[in-house]
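Y4cD: structure tokens wanted.
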Amino acid sequence: MPDYDFRSLSPYDFQLMCRDLLQAELRETFESFTSGPDGGVDLRCLDADIVVQCKHYAGSRYEKLKSVLAKSEVSKVAALSPERYILCTSLGLTPNRKSEIRGIFDPYCITDEDVYGRDDLNRLLTAFPRIEENNFKLWLTSEVVLRRLVFAGLLEYSERAVERARAKNQRYVQTPAFRKALDILEEHHSCVIAGIPGIGKTTLAEMLMVHYVDRHDFQPVRISFDFSQVTQSARYQEKLVFYFDDFLGTTKFDKLLRNEDARIIEFMEDAARNPRWRFIMTTREYILNQARLRLERLANANLDAETCVLDLDDYSESARAAILYNHIFFSGLSREHKLALLKNWTYRRIANHRNYNPRIVEHMTDPRNLRSVVAGEYAQDFIASLDNPSRIWKHAFEEQLTEGAQYLLLALASMPTDCLVKDLEDVFESFLKLRAKRGGFTRQPHEFSKALRELDGNFISTSMVGDDRLVSFHNPSVGDFLAHHLDANEKDVMDLLDSAVFFEQCEALADGPKGEPSKSAAKLKQNMERSLRRLFQSSSAHLQQWSTDAGLVGMTRNEVNSIDRVSAVVQLTEQLDSPELRTFARQLLQQTEKHFESLRLDVVAYARIGETLMNRKIRDEVDESYLRSLKSHLEKRASEMICHQAVLLLTERGNSFFSPDEVGFFKDSFVSFCEKEADEIFLQTDADHIRTQAHSLEFTAKRYEVEDRTSLFTTEMLKTATLMDPEEEETPEPEKDWDQEPSQSFDMDEMFRGLSYEIENLDEADDVSTPDDAQSV
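Answer:
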């Protein structure tokens, strides 16, 4: 039996849960009323004279509950004179205390069983598991579950992350998007959650992941940096749920490193065939659309069936109101600030605003963001932020931050999505040194550490992975704001380029808002060319996570891949239309061409350069020479699987790089490769490896359109894997018979009248827990 203390529920949530439990046990229909001066009625039976009062006093003492009942409630019940009175409370009750409460309400409370304490409610949750499943806030905050998720990696190895998850769960409101995404996962085993910034993609993905982890015993695999983490943990026989947040990155697909688009699509194919896997990804909708245009694997993959697009239509009026209710109730705001949103129907203006966005609601109910906003101006300031969302960060950046903190944010905007704090410090120090020299000002001691403390938990977030401390933006909207800022501030971009420490900074600064070329960078072509030359051999700022069987984890830098950097320079030449970069790119292409025969490097990286050259309107002799050498090199490596990945990269967009006869040659070579793999199966001892290998060949054969010629070989490989290690029976699908939405009509005013009553009488029910890092305004 579960042992919930119900602390994560607001009074409104607690009342609705009690309503559902009583309806299920008593087989009667109850209508609910929000908290307030209601004459002692929270729930009322529609077909019998039964009234119910819900007292959510988690964390309080029994004497307090008894006093409130005797002084305030008994007279109300006597006035109502119902045939039956039921009390539900989140406090644990002994048999003697239940009898004592029944005596207070005699003769309306007929038996001790009409008094439901914490243990009784937990018993009913066991008897009616669908109600438990529909109440995320219960089981997600279970101490056992949270501990399990921490060690599984979902909450990133820190108690502080556990507290953030608990706070987020208190504010979570389940919408139809959850069920839609869950249905997609059950049918296709993969789901891409897309939508505009701040719409709730990450929260939905986390709730789906926890659903599988806690309700159906899946093991979580959170992909934080690159897709190679999957290959380290993807055991075919295990129940695994993979979660790749923001898998395309924030601009220019910065998380898709080294041909990852092909690996992701291939993995989705594997997941579709494996009933034990679920694969959840999130991305911004406009980036997904750009990726479909620019990445041929995603363009050719039919992702529509696996995509759940979140938009404001997924948030009904009741859902918007509930999100706002939860954020107000569980915030660390002062009572005066909370009540300011409940006066003059301000809550209606917020919930029905054309720019309503859960992220704005989160920001505007966080006390740390409102230190200079007095209660009398709070409602007006909230509405103004909805009218113009960019003002949230613009005002704080320009008016509230120190100059050092501004510089740190600009430095972070030039770095990859997640970076080491020590790397950010190097970038900050170089940037500030140049600024001080050009501006003629004197630097102050410990500026980086001061700026980091000023921003952490507000504009940025830091976290530990093993002994390594990482830093990223607190939420992506900060990065969005800074992208717009840099796009319009050429001097900031110039100083960041001239002081850059990492090659990746140049790539980031070339991208403007929504992945478009940066207007500022386009005017600074000479600065860009100088920095790319200077940093071409520099260390990488991109990271990947490592772990050991003993549970040790940490971060390490990606190895510098010079061919990838050549590809980046070639692409930046086109992106910025830069003659200066064109000269540098020519030199790099000539050097790279010499390596075709001397080095056995990743031929797919060579092919990516070739693809960029093929798409040029005008090619010179250096380009043509590179393409001829690339074709010759691919023909010599036709017996290798990686060669065929490169060939498909160059053919799937329908260009004329290969003649029909040449394409036929590569198809024949691939079929021979499959036959060789099947013949050498006896050398393999790992059934999972054979299955993965067979599925990879099936995927490539489908792209080559030669399945009829390779199916004999891949089928033989799968049969051998099954003989070595028989697959288990298919995992039963989770139940889908969800409880229906409440039949009674929604009344927003009634909901917020109840919230107002709760806030005004908070000293009677001190059951609201404020996060440790939130301070009342």
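DSSP finds 37 helices and 15 strands in the chain. Residues 172-314 form a domain with the Rossmann fold fold (CATH 3.40.50.300).

Cheers.
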